[in-house]
Amino acid sequence: MEGGSLVSCKEDISLLLPEDVPSAKRKDLLSQFCAVRKVSGDGNCLYRAFCFAHLESVLHNSRALQRFRDKIIQSGKILASAGFDERTFNHHLKTVVNVVEQCQAGEKENTLFMLFNEQVVSDSVVQYLRLLTSAHLQIHTDFFCNFVEAPDLEVYCHQEVEVMAMECDHVDILALTQALDIGIHIVSMETDEQQLAHYIIPEGAEPSLHLLYQMSHYNILYQQPQL
Questions:
Q1: Is 201 helix (H, G, I), strand (E, B) or coil?
Q2: Which domains does the chain possess?
Q3: Which residues sit opposite 212 in a β-bridge?
Q4: pLDDT per position as a tens digit, 49-77
Q5: Is-above-0.90 flag for pTM?
Q6: Could you list the active site residues?
Q7: Given pLDDT bands bounded at 50, 70 and 90, which one contains residue 23?
Protein backbone atom coordinates (compact mmCIF):
# COMPACT_ATOMS: atom_id res chain seq x y z
CA MET A 1 0.00 0.00 0.00
CA GLU A 2 1.12 3.55 -0.75
CA GLY A 3 3.20 5.25 1.91
CA GLY A 4 3.23 2.13 4.08
CA SER A 5 -0.18 2.93 5.59
CA LEU A 6 -2.01 0.10 7.34
CA VAL A 7 -5.45 1.51 6.47
CA SER A 8 -5.87 3.81 3.47
CA CYS A 9 -8.17 6.74 2.80
CA LYS A 10 -11.42 5.95 1.00
CA GLU A 11 -10.98 5.37 -2.73
CA ASP A 12 -13.25 4.89 -5.72
CA ILE A 13 -14.11 1.20 -5.85
CA SER A 14 -13.50 0.90 -9.59
CA LEU A 15 -9.76 1.26 -8.91
CA LEU A 16 -9.82 -2.19 -7.29
CA LEU A 17 -11.32 -3.98 -10.26
CA PRO A 18 -8.87 -5.37 -12.82
CA GLU A 19 -9.98 -5.48 -16.44
CA ASP A 20 -10.53 -9.23 -16.40
CA VAL A 21 -13.27 -9.07 -13.75
CA PRO A 22 -16.47 -10.46 -15.33
CA SER A 23 -18.82 -7.63 -16.26
CA ALA A 24 -21.66 -9.10 -14.17
CA LYS A 25 -19.50 -9.06 -11.03
CA ARG A 26 -18.29 -5.54 -11.77
CA LYS A 27 -21.85 -4.30 -12.33
CA ASP A 28 -23.13 -6.03 -9.18
CA LEU A 29 -20.36 -4.57 -7.03
CA LEU A 30 -20.66 -1.04 -8.40
CA SER A 31 -24.44 -1.07 -8.00
CA GLN A 32 -24.16 -1.77 -4.27
CA PHE A 33 -20.90 -0.12 -3.21
CA CYS A 34 -19.28 3.20 -4.04
CA ALA A 35 -15.97 3.24 -2.20
CA VAL A 36 -13.30 1.04 -0.70
CA ARG A 37 -10.69 1.46 2.00
CA LYS A 38 -7.61 -0.66 1.44
CA VAL A 39 -6.07 -2.57 4.34
CA SER A 40 -2.46 -3.70 4.46
CA GLY A 41 -1.89 -7.19 3.06
CA ASP A 42 0.23 -8.36 5.99
CA GLY A 43 -1.79 -11.42 6.99
CA ASN A 44 -3.74 -9.41 9.57
CA CYS A 45 -6.15 -7.73 7.15
CA LEU A 46 -9.35 -9.39 8.39
CA TYR A 47 -8.84 -8.42 12.03
CA ARG A 48 -7.66 -4.90 11.21
CA ALA A 49 -10.49 -4.30 8.73
CA PHE A 50 -13.07 -5.77 11.12
CA CYS A 51 -12.24 -3.49 14.05
CA PHE A 52 -11.70 -0.34 11.99
CA ALA A 53 -14.90 -0.79 10.00
CA HIS A 54 -17.04 -1.58 13.05
CA LEU A 55 -15.71 1.39 15.00
CA GLU A 56 -16.25 3.63 11.98
CA SER A 57 -19.84 2.41 11.70
CA VAL A 58 -20.64 3.42 15.31
CA LEU A 59 -18.46 6.55 15.61
CA HIS A 60 -21.43 8.92 15.78
CA ASN A 61 -23.65 6.65 17.88
CA SER A 62 -22.46 7.25 21.42
CA ARG A 63 -24.54 4.41 22.87
CA ALA A 64 -23.25 1.88 20.34
CA LEU A 65 -19.68 3.06 20.90
CA GLN A 66 -20.12 2.67 24.65
CA ARG A 67 -21.64 -0.79 24.15
CA PHE A 68 -18.60 -1.84 22.13
CA ARG A 69 -16.25 -0.50 24.83
CA ASP A 70 -18.17 -2.44 27.50
CA LYS A 71 -18.13 -5.57 25.33
CA ILE A 72 -14.37 -5.36 24.91
CA ILE A 73 -13.85 -4.91 28.67
CA GLN A 74 -16.11 -7.90 29.41
CA SER A 75 -14.34 -10.00 26.79
CA GLY A 76 -11.33 -10.23 29.08
CA LYS A 77 -13.38 -12.78 31.04
CA ILE A 78 -13.59 -14.97 27.92
CA LEU A 79 -9.80 -15.11 27.70
CA ALA A 80 -9.45 -15.77 31.42
CA SER A 81 -11.98 -18.61 31.30
CA ALA A 82 -10.11 -20.13 28.33
CA GLY A 83 -6.99 -20.31 30.51
CA PHE A 84 -5.07 -17.28 29.25
CA ASP A 85 -2.84 -15.59 31.82
CA GLU A 86 -4.02 -12.01 32.29
CA ARG A 87 -0.42 -10.82 31.89
CA THR A 88 -0.41 -12.11 28.29
CA PHE A 89 -3.43 -10.10 27.17
CA ASN A 90 -4.08 -7.23 29.59
CA HIS A 91 -1.87 -4.75 27.71
CA HIS A 92 -3.63 -5.50 24.41
CA LEU A 93 -7.06 -5.29 26.06
CA LYS A 94 -6.19 -1.86 27.45
CA THR A 95 -5.02 -0.76 24.00
CA VAL A 96 -8.38 -1.61 22.40
CA VAL A 97 -10.29 0.14 25.21
CA ASN A 98 -8.02 3.19 24.87
CA VAL A 99 -8.66 3.32 21.10
CA VAL A 100 -12.42 3.28 21.69
CA GLU A 101 -12.18 5.95 24.40
CA GLN A 102 -10.09 8.22 22.16
CA CYS A 103 -12.72 7.82 19.43
CA GLN A 104 -15.36 8.84 21.96
CA ALA A 105 -13.47 12.04 22.79
CA GLY A 106 -13.63 14.01 19.54
CA GLU A 107 -12.16 14.44 16.03
CA LYS A 108 -13.54 10.96 15.62
CA GLU A 109 -12.65 10.10 12.01
CA ASN A 110 -9.15 11.60 12.26
CA THR A 111 -8.49 9.85 15.57
CA LEU A 112 -9.60 6.45 14.30
CA PHE A 113 -7.56 6.79 11.10
CA MET A 114 -4.45 7.95 12.98
CA LEU A 115 -4.60 5.20 15.62
CA PHE A 116 -5.05 2.40 13.10
CA ASN A 117 -2.05 3.66 11.14
CA GLU A 118 0.20 3.66 14.21
CA GLN A 119 1.86 0.25 13.85
CA VAL A 120 2.26 -0.52 17.56
CA VAL A 121 -1.31 0.47 18.45
CA SER A 122 -2.89 -1.11 15.38
CA ASP A 123 -1.00 -4.39 15.80
CA SER A 124 -1.89 -4.52 19.50
CA VAL A 125 -5.58 -4.28 18.57
CA VAL A 126 -5.11 -7.09 16.04
CA GLN A 127 -3.28 -9.23 18.61
CA TYR A 128 -6.11 -8.84 21.11
CA LEU A 129 -8.72 -9.84 18.56
CA ARG A 130 -6.63 -12.89 17.66
CA LEU A 131 -6.42 -13.95 21.33
CA LEU A 132 -10.14 -13.37 21.79
CA THR A 133 -10.91 -15.46 18.70
CA SER A 134 -8.70 -18.26 20.02
CA ALA A 135 -10.37 -18.13 23.44
CA HIS A 136 -13.87 -18.30 21.94
CA LEU A 137 -12.87 -21.26 19.75
CA GLN A 138 -11.42 -23.14 22.71
CA ILE A 139 -14.38 -22.47 25.00
CA HIS A 140 -16.73 -23.80 22.30
CA THR A 141 -14.57 -26.75 21.27
CA ASP A 142 -17.50 -29.14 20.84
CA PHE A 143 -18.96 -26.92 18.12
CA PHE A 144 -15.84 -25.64 16.35
CA CYS A 145 -13.83 -28.87 16.30
CA ASN A 146 -16.12 -30.02 13.47
CA PHE A 147 -14.89 -27.17 11.26
CA VAL A 148 -11.15 -27.36 11.90
CA GLU A 149 -9.05 -29.84 9.96
CA ALA A 150 -6.22 -29.82 12.51
CA PRO A 151 -6.22 -32.87 14.84
CA ASP A 152 -6.32 -30.65 17.92
CA LEU A 153 -8.28 -27.39 18.19
CA GLU A 154 -5.96 -26.02 20.87
CA VAL A 155 -2.91 -26.61 18.67
CA TYR A 156 -4.74 -25.00 15.75
CA CYS A 157 -5.47 -21.92 17.88
CA HIS A 158 -1.87 -21.58 19.11
CA GLN A 159 -0.35 -22.04 15.65
CA GLU A 160 -2.90 -20.52 13.26
CA VAL A 161 -5.03 -18.01 15.19
CA GLU A 162 -2.92 -16.39 17.89
CA VAL A 163 0.16 -15.83 15.71
CA MET A 164 0.37 -12.48 13.94
CA ALA A 165 0.40 -12.46 10.12
CA MET A 166 -1.44 -15.80 9.86
CA GLU A 167 -4.32 -15.55 7.41
CA CYS A 168 -7.85 -15.92 8.73
CA ASP A 169 -10.17 -18.87 8.10
CA HIS A 170 -13.97 -18.81 7.92
CA VAL A 171 -14.14 -20.57 11.30
CA ASP A 172 -12.02 -17.81 12.89
CA ILE A 173 -14.30 -15.11 11.48
CA LEU A 174 -17.36 -16.88 12.87
CA ALA A 175 -15.74 -17.15 16.32
CA LEU A 176 -14.75 -13.46 16.33
CA THR A 177 -18.21 -12.27 15.29
CA GLN A 178 -19.85 -14.47 17.92
CA ALA A 179 -17.47 -13.33 20.67
CA LEU A 180 -18.25 -9.64 20.07
CA ASP A 181 -21.83 -10.04 18.76
CA ILE A 182 -21.00 -8.14 15.55
CA GLY A 183 -22.31 -9.12 12.12
CA ILE A 184 -20.17 -8.97 8.97
CA HIS A 185 -21.18 -8.94 5.33
CA ILE A 186 -18.43 -10.43 3.15
CA VAL A 187 -18.60 -9.92 -0.59
CA SER A 188 -16.37 -12.45 -2.36
CA MET A 189 -14.93 -12.05 -5.83
CA GLU A 190 -13.31 -15.49 -5.47
CA THR A 191 -15.95 -17.62 -7.16
CA ASP A 192 -15.99 -19.40 -10.51
CA GLU A 193 -19.46 -18.00 -11.08
CA GLN A 194 -20.17 -14.81 -13.00
CA GLN A 195 -21.90 -13.39 -9.91
CA LEU A 196 -20.49 -12.22 -6.61
CA ALA A 197 -20.90 -14.42 -3.55
CA HIS A 198 -22.40 -12.81 -0.44
CA TYR A 199 -21.89 -14.16 3.10
CA ILE A 200 -23.49 -12.83 6.29
CA ILE A 201 -21.58 -13.98 9.39
CA PRO A 202 -23.08 -15.08 11.71
CA GLU A 203 -25.95 -16.23 9.53
CA GLY A 204 -29.04 -14.04 9.91
CA ALA A 205 -27.17 -11.21 11.65
CA GLU A 206 -27.60 -7.52 10.83
CA PRO A 207 -24.09 -6.61 9.60
CA SER A 208 -22.44 -3.41 10.78
CA LEU A 209 -19.61 -3.66 8.24
CA HIS A 210 -18.98 -4.81 4.69
CA LEU A 211 -15.72 -6.42 3.52
CA LEU A 212 -14.54 -7.32 0.04
CA TYR A 213 -12.69 -10.63 -0.28
CA GLN A 214 -10.47 -10.57 -3.34
CA MET A 215 -7.25 -12.49 -4.06
CA SER A 216 -7.17 -13.90 -0.49
CA HIS A 217 -7.32 -10.39 0.95
CA TYR A 218 -9.90 -8.27 2.78
CA ASN A 219 -10.63 -4.57 2.18
CA ILE A 220 -13.42 -2.40 3.61
CA LEU A 221 -16.44 -1.63 1.43
CA TYR A 222 -18.83 1.34 1.62
CA GLN A 223 -22.41 1.05 0.43
CA GLN A 224 -23.98 3.32 -2.15
CA PRO A 225 -25.92 6.07 -0.32
CA GLN A 226 -29.60 5.29 0.06
CA LEU A 227 -31.78 7.59 -2.05
A1: strand
A2: 2-223 (1.20.1300.20)
A3: 187, 219
A4: 999 999 999 999 999 999 999 999 999 99
A5: yes
A6: 42, 45, 198, 217
A7: confident
